[in-house]
Amino acid sequence: MKILITGGTTFVSKFTAEYFAKKGNEVFVMNRGNRAQPSGVTWINCDRTDPGDTLKENFFDVILDVTGYTQEHIQKLLDSGIRFNDYFFVSSSAVYPETNHQPFTEEQKCGKNSIWGDYGINKLLAEQYLTEHCPGAYILRPPYFYGIYENLYREAFVFDCADQNREFYIPGDGDMKLQFFNVKDFCRFVEIILDRCPTEHIFNVGNNDSVTIREWVTMCYRIAGKEPVFKSVDRSVFQRYYFCFYDYEYLLDVTKQNELMPDTIPLEEGLEEEYRWYKTEPDSIYRRNPYMDYIDSNLR
């Protein structure tokens, strides 16, 4: 297939580009060239908000839109004159208001989530514009992505704490739950949709089960060959000062995904792979939040 991937230089878009290139597809990545390009792809030097004639009359079997965050992003791409068969948009679980009944299902009403604010609203407006102008497009709503090329200081923060033999400062008793989705499973699911052409076009995607913070941290330490010693932090302390996730628990219902792809990578197996990669690429993190500095100055 001839595939266009928006972005292509960080985390999900980079992994996706290399995954499909290794499968023998002709992969193009569209970005402004601010970072190194992935291997095995063709680079299209283009700002998606001002594509000009760069994409005009180009045809792709599939567009994988990993970096669409606003209605403008979708509108400018569709108005560029580009031609395609299938369009996949990576949206977000942030389109579900936190007041909805959980687990969130695809049929629930979407709207503002007070935790995610404009990010969720902009993703929702992008979804709505795409559905109106390209009704055959597929919309995927993930929870937290993880895996190789992760560029946010999440798993890497815990790995660093383990490698430095640090005590781990955990919100409350660590019972808040997190739901994850491996980038490799994302690519597998796209392949399945392309093969099966389901009538459903909006899918929650993610692992079937969630894990508590305590369980997740324990996995990360165990992978690093360590056992965590937990220090409980009062929930009145703003969680993002010292921990890598907001104080927000939610669960996506992934029944429709499971009907097409019943198996996902076990979380600990995926974390092991990420840890091995991170140990070879310790400078890959886009921004290292100063969690340890805050802990050392205010909590120890």
- One letter per element, helices H and strands E, the order comes to EHEEEHEHEEHEEEHEEHEHHH
Domain count, please report it: 2
The helix content is: 25-40%
CATH superfamily of the largest domain: NAD(P)-binding Rossmann-like Domain
User: Mean pLDDT across all residues, rounded?
Assistant: 97
Question: Which strand-content bin applies to the residues?
Answer: 15-25%
- For the report, how would you describe the main beta sheet? 7 strands, parallel
What does this protein look like?
- This protein is of the alpha/beta class.
- The chain has two domains: 2-145 and 183-204, 3-Layer(aba) Sandwich (Rossmann fold), CATH 3.40.50.720; 152-179 and 208-250 and 266-298, UDP-galactose 4-epimerase, domain 1.
- 33% of the residues lie in helices and 18% in strands.
- It contains nine helices and 13 strands.
- It has helices spanning 11-22, 71-78, 118-133, 155-163, 183-196, 213-223, 255-260, 267-280, 291-298, and strands spanning 2-6, 26-31, 42-45, 59-65, 83-90, 138-141, 144-146, 168-171, 177-178, 180-182, 202-204, 211-212, 230-233.
- Helix 3 (118-133) links the parallel strand 5 (83-90) and strand 6.
- Helix 1 (11-22) crosses helix 5 (183-196), helix 2 (71-78) packs parallel to helix 3 (118-133) and helix 4 packs across helix 6 (213-223).
- It is globular and about 60 Å long.
- The model has no long low-confidence stretch (mean pLDDT 97).
